[in-house]
Amino acid sequence: MAVQSHLKINGNFKGRDILSLDQFTTKDIAKLLEVTKNMKKIACGAEPCDILKGNIVALIFYEPSSRTFGSFGAAVKQLGGQTIEIQDPQHFSSVAKGETLEDTIRVFEAYSDAIVIRHPTAGTAQKAAEAAFFVPIINAGDGIGEHPTQALLDVATIHEKHNRLDNLTGVIAGDLLNGRTVHSLMRALSLYKNNTLYLLSPNELKLSKSDYQKFEKAGLKLHEIDNDKDIPKNADFWYWTRVQKERFQDISDYEKVKNRFVVTVDLMKNKAGKDTIILHPLPRVGEIATDVDSDPRAVYLKSQIRNGHYVRMALMALVLGKIK
Ligand code: NCD
């Protein structure tokens, strides 16, 4: 909502736009994780719940999505609410006729209680929030900017395993320059003390200098590495990501850097410990060998996915003011 766009959450999720992890404190994350635990029980069928009955949430996705789109829809419906689902508005809405983002947002806020938006351009969720008069905007991924709800489910998954979000050693690998999930996750981890991250990427896809400096200043201990031999043994988590093909102007540049680092059974044997969990925001396109999937430490197609559903249930219930 226009007047609240930049606001920190500070314990009050009701009506807040959720645009960036910068809006969160550790207390806000703790609260969300607490509510998430209850949502897991509801989703698992123990306690039916229809706290979003009568609510409508618009999902407007200008970029392809499977998990984020599916889990927001599942989250709202699980709590008794309904969704208006627009995928590819460039072809299936008045955007095809030249409607501006601002007008589209103002139209859909007339029909809904919140708008979840994904867009190929960084900063668009913020722009949508400035355009909206009445309803909160949730950023479901804006170009190479941020993907806050992904980071929230990522930290929920790390917390579930290690029972803490501080004093962690992690490896973040892949496209650190363009990966919005990485940008949000690093913001989240920088809120906690004594976290050390090994950043494994091809030289061309290193974190931008300004991000590196910002996260270091915020307290993260960062080590850039460009060889999987330099992965520390027994890290608490590995967060692998795909190279973001759609962000490249020249496809031959993508071909040069794709799948430089692949998680294999051998790499796991050499470097992972018994408590190292392997996360990936998905989709994977070859950067984790499929024979790693059956390893209990590989959570990307298991608890990490499910946590996306529970975290988004919690977030929608909080933002729509159904839980205080
Ligand atoms: C990511 C995204 O779209 O930012 N996926 C997701 O939402 N789970 C990561 C990606 O596309 O690589």
Tell me the major beta sheet. 5 strands, parallel
Number of strands: 9
> Which shape, going by the Cα principal axes?
globular
Report the bound ligands by name, code or SMILES: N-carbamoyl-L-aspartate
Order of helices and strands: HEHEHHEHEHEHEHEEHHEH
Cα end-to-end separation: 19 Å
Strand residues, percent: 5-15%
Overall pLDDT level: 96
Can you list the strand order of the major beta sheet? 7-6-5-8-9
Q: How large, in whole angstroms, is the Cα Rg?
A: 19 Å
Helical proportion, percent range: 25-40%
Tell me the structural class.
Answer: alpha/beta
Q: Low-confidence parts lasting 5 or more residues at pLDDT below 50? A: none
> How would you name the oligomeric state of the polypeptide chains in this document?
single chain
Number of helices: 11
List the helices and strands and how they pair.
Elements: H1 26-43, E1 56-61, H2 67-78, E2 82-87, H3 89-92, H4 101-109, E3 114-119, H5 124-131, E4 137-142, H6 148-162, E5 169-173, H7 180-189, E6 196-200, H8 209-217, E7 221-225, E8 237-240, H9 251-257, H10 265-271, E9 277-279, H11 303-319
Parallel strand pairs: 1-2, 1-3, 3-4, 5-6, 5-8, 6-7, 8-9
The protein binds N-carbamoyl-L-aspartate.
Residues 67-68, 141, 147, 150, 180-181, 242, 281-282 line the site of N-carbamoyl-L-aspartate.
Keywords:
single chain; 324 residues; alpha/beta; five-stranded parallel β-sheet; four-stranded parallel β-sheet; 36% helix; globular; binds N-carbamoyl-L-aspartate
